[in-house]
Design goal:
Radius of gyration: 22 Å
Helix content: 25-40%
Shape: flat
Strand order of the largest sheet: 1-2
Number of domains: 2
Number of helices: 5
Number of strands: 4
Structural class: alpha+beta
Length: about 120
C-alpha cells in the first residue's frame, strides 16, 4: 500500500526496452535499446459499487499484506465477528487485529480498517 502511494522509485522508472514511438533518427543514433519509462505500480484504485439492502448488516475489513499474508481470510473474518459479538467497536477491533499481527516474529507493516454497516442505521 505504501509503495503505491509513496515510494517514488517504483513509479515511472526507467526501463531498458525498445520504444516503438522513437523516431528513426533516434534509433540510428543509439546502438542499444532505448530507455523508456513505465509504471510498475499504480495509485489508481480499483473501485466497484454494490447495492446494499437496508434489512441486512454488512462488514468491510480492509487489511494490508502485513495482515493478509499472515492470516487466512476466513479466520480473519471469524475473528472480527467474534470480537464484534463481544461488543468491541470497529476501531478497537481494527487496532487489535493490527497489533496482534504486528507483534508476531518477522512481521511486516500491519494495517487494518473495519467498517460495520447496519442496514437503515448506517
Amino acid at each position: 500500500m505504501s509503495r503505491a502511494l509513496g515510494d517514488l522509485q517504483y513509479k515511472n522508472p526507467v526501463n531498458a526496452v525498445e520504444d516503438e514511438n522513437l523516431t528513426t533518427r533516434a534509433r540510428r543514433a543509439s546502438s542499444s535499446s532505448a530507455l523508456v519509462r513505465g509504471d510498475f505500480l499504480s495509485n489508481d484504485p480499483y473501485t466497484s459499487r454494490r447495492m446494499l439492502q437496508s434489512s441486512r448488516r454488512y462488514l468491510l475489513v480492509i487489511v494490508s499484506d502485513g495482515v493478509s499474508d499472515r492470516t487466512d481470510d476466513t479466520a480473519l473474518i471469524q475473528h472480527v465477528m467474534k470480537l464484534s459479538m463481544r461488543g468491541l467497536r470497529a476501531n478497537d477491533i481494527a487496532q487489535e487485529v493490527a497489533s496482534s499481527t504486528a507483534s508476531r516474529p518477522k512481521s511486516d507493516n500491519a494495517t487494518c480498517v473495519v467498517v460495520m454497516l447496519d442496514g437503515q442505521h448506517s
